[in-house]
Amino acid sequence: MSPRDTGSAPAQQPSRTSWRRRVDWRGLALALGLGTAGGVLFFKLHVPLAFMIGSMVFTTAAAMAGLPVSVPKKLRASMVAILGIMLGSSFTPELLGRLGEWQLSLAGLLVYVAVAALVGLAYLRLVARYDPVTSYFAAMPGGFNEMVLMGGAMGGDDRTIALNHSLRILMVVLLVPIAFQHLPGFETQARDWSLNSLGPALGALPPADWLLLAACGVIGAPVAQRLGIPAGLLVGPMLLSAAIHLSGLTAGKPPGLVVASAQVVVGAAIGCRFAGLALGRILRTALVAAGLTLVLLTVTVAVAFLVHTATGLDLAALILAYAPGGLAEMSLVALSLQADPAFVATHHIVRIILVVILAPAAFRLWHRRAQRLKAEARGRDKG
């Protein structure tokens, strides 16, 4: 809703009615139907993060085939809040004693963001031949919405930036869980492949816990957005959920069926980003994004290995913590792979904050320097 739409209560009712009218119910039904089918199939095949990956694959294929799939932003927002509540439940009182162990790995994020951005920028400029502004904001390892908005405002191609970020997230979410199955110590047969692995049964959660967890989403998401916190829809509920779990008010978690449904919606929303785009453009950009993803994952593994060597922290958790996927997506991958979701989520929050704060400032410095060099060159030519 734009600032002009905010105001007195009577003016808000038409906007809610118009939102209902704007929803493409057939597209939503198709997206959720395909997403559910894909999620169930991948779950039966014992694919990690099955409901989100299966939903994402099926809806992406439908979107690229030209089918009218769609997921409203408000529905995705509510599901992201549920995932935030679930991630917050992984912050247990025992975690407080381990926070000191994360100092060096959190500091390593600054090195990771700088190196990943520079290498990604060089790749997009030299290989993909993107213009400087588009290359810069497409190369950033995080901050999807912020990079698209800032890149467009600075004169870049916002659709190319958005498509590169979307494809990178899709590829990272697909590749990382599959690659982890081939790592030593990852035993797929030993895992619980039921909805109980995602959360308790619907009837197992006491009413008081239902109210506490629901309050985390209802209060946390709008407050975080009002404060301008990056990824506020997920971070706000996650922080409130973490607070009530760390305080011992509850040990409850969202039911497994609710978490699976949320994953289906989030996966479908990723796939629907490709609806309405020409297949040729998607495929051309996918080739570029595949190279960028490989470059960023190489930097991820290298920095994670250096931090692992220096700290002794688990290498698998570090790779997930530094991987250039979305906050919600990579935190869910960590949960699916039985890594430390609190560790991974905390690092991704810090990564997003670093990108959102530092990327625009660094771009302005770079842009001013480029303009100054051009002016000096013109002055020499005239002289």
Using brief descriptors, characterize the structure shown.
72% helix, disordered N terminus, 15 helices, mainly alpha, 383 residues, globular
How is this structure best described in words?
The chain has 383 residues and is an all-alpha fold. The chain has a domain at 99-250 and 278-372. Helices cover 72% and strands 0% of the residues. The protein has helices at 9-22, 25-44, 50-64, 73-88, 103-126, 132-139, 144-153, 158-180, 207-226, 232-246, 256-272, 279-311, 315-322, 327-336, 341-382. Helix 2 (25-44) packs across helix 11 (256-272), helix 5 packs antiparallel against helix 6 and helix 9 (207-226) packs across helix 10 (232-246). The protein is globular, with a radius of gyration of 21 Å. Mean pLDDT is 83; it is low at 1-16.
Summarize the structure.
With 383 residues, the protein is mainly alpha-helical. 72% of the residues lie in helices and 0% in strands.
User: How confident overall, as mean pLDDT?
Assistant: 83
Poorly predicted runs are: 1-16
Encode the helix/strand succession as letters. HHHHHHHHHHHHHHH
Which percent bin holds the helix content? Answer: over 70%
Overall strand count: 0
| Proportion of strand residues | under 5%
Radius of gyration: 21 Å
- State the separation between the terminal residues, measured CA to CA: 53 Å
Number of helices: 15
Biggest sheet: strands, sense, closure? none
Structural shape: globular
Q: Output the structural class.
A: mainly alpha
